[in-house]
Every structure is written in C-alpha cells, then in structure tokens.
Amino acid sequence: MNTSRLDFESPLAVEKWGWKYHHMGIPTNKVMPGEKYLPQFKLYVSGFSTSPFGVEWMRFEDDSPVSPLIQTVPHIAFEVDDLEKELRTHSLKIITEPNKTAEGITVAMIEHNGAPVELIEFRNSGPGVPEKKNKNRVWLISGLLFGLFMFIAMEILYPLIAEHEITPKALLIGIPLWLICGLGWGYTMKIVMNKKERKNK
Fold first, then answer.
1. Tens digits of per-residue pLDDT, 80-112?
2. What is the CA radius of gyration of the chain?
C-alpha cells in the first residue's frame, strides 16, 4: 500500500493486482434524469448505463442503511475476479461486507485513506450477467492438459515409435515431472497474457 507510484504508472491495484476500472459513484442531493431505485439500499442511481466514463450518480434517502462515508464521499469501483481472495490477500479495511446486489453479482466496500472503494465480482449466472472465464482456473487447466499431452507423447508414444521399452519406473517418474512442467508452462502463459492485456488497455 505504501509503494511510491510514478506519474506515468498505473495504480498498483491495476498494474499488479489485476483490478479493472468499472465506475465512479458520486453522491448528490439533486434528482437526476433516468433514476433507478434500489429499495434495499434506499438509494436512487442514474447515469451509469449512458456515461462513456462510467460516472454514476447516487441520491440517498435520509434513512438509507448505506455507510455515511459512501453517502458523502465519491467512490471508485473496480471489477475483480475473486472478491474474497482480494479482501483476504491485501488485508483491506472493509466497511461493507460482501453481499449480492443481484444474481451473479457480489460487491463489497473498502476504505483507504478516507476514500471509499467498491469491489465487484461477476459470476456467469443469472439473466443479464455475461459469461466470464475464471482466469485462475484457465491457466491451471491449460497447464494440466499440456502436461498430460507431453506425458503421453514423451513417455508412451515416443518409446513406442523408437521401439524403446516402457517401464513402470519411467512412467512413475514421468507423471510428476510432466505435471510440474505443465503447471509451469500454464502459469508462464498466464503472466504473458496478463502483460499483453495491460498493454492493450
């Protein structure tokens, strides 16, 4: 959290943690056009679906259960792949515990240096929620499949083609060897793809 950031660098949460900007919420007392009412929060929201910059206006009722900090200070929201993991990994100060705002959507609010920050996790369930790939699972599956392919190719097919003996010892050694190699390949590809995504943003 105390890492110094240079002018040209992206925030740590984006550059290193992989968070994606989603919207900025701004409290207001003014009735805005196209307001949508959220009864569970006693809150009117507007602007999100039409703003090219992701600006969302929030008008709270007097008895809204939402944290006073969120009602008075603008917040920025990030999309994350695994909300629970992010909260646990970075020891963040939680002001609103994770809760479902809709089917397949979980949010939490944290506070840093007096500023509220919203974290949002989307799951591929429920109407209107697009299917999202779990990146943590993709690289793991890809690595395991690569390791399995190499095990079959090098420990079974190659000896058969070369007319070499296939021994139980060689198979027992090959299983963990290619498993580790496969996971290493999958994780390396994950790092490479993440770097490419950041450059394309």
1. 999 999 999 998 999 999 988 878 899 999 999
2. 24
Q: Which residue intervals of 79-134 are DSSP H helices?
A: 83-89
Contacts of residue 29, defined as CB under 8 A and 6 or more positions apart, other chains included, come to 59
Rounded to whole angstroms, the Cα distance separating 71 from 50 reads 22
Nearest CA to 89 out of 190, 11, 143, 13 is that of 13
User: Distance between CA atoms of 183 and 163, rounded to whole angstroms?
Assistant: 29
Beta-bridge mates of residue 36: 45
Instruction: Give the CA count within 13 Å in the CB-facing half-sphere of 83.
Output: 23
The token pair at 101 is 């705002």
Q: Which alpha helices (H) appear in the chain, and where do they start and end?
A: 12-15, 68-72, 83-89, 135-152, 158-162, 168-200
CA distance 92 to 119: 11
The string of DSSP codes covering 156-199 is IIHHHHHT----HHHHHHHHHHHHHHHHHHHHHHHHHHHHHHHH
Question: Which residues in the chain land under pLDDT 50?
Answer: 201
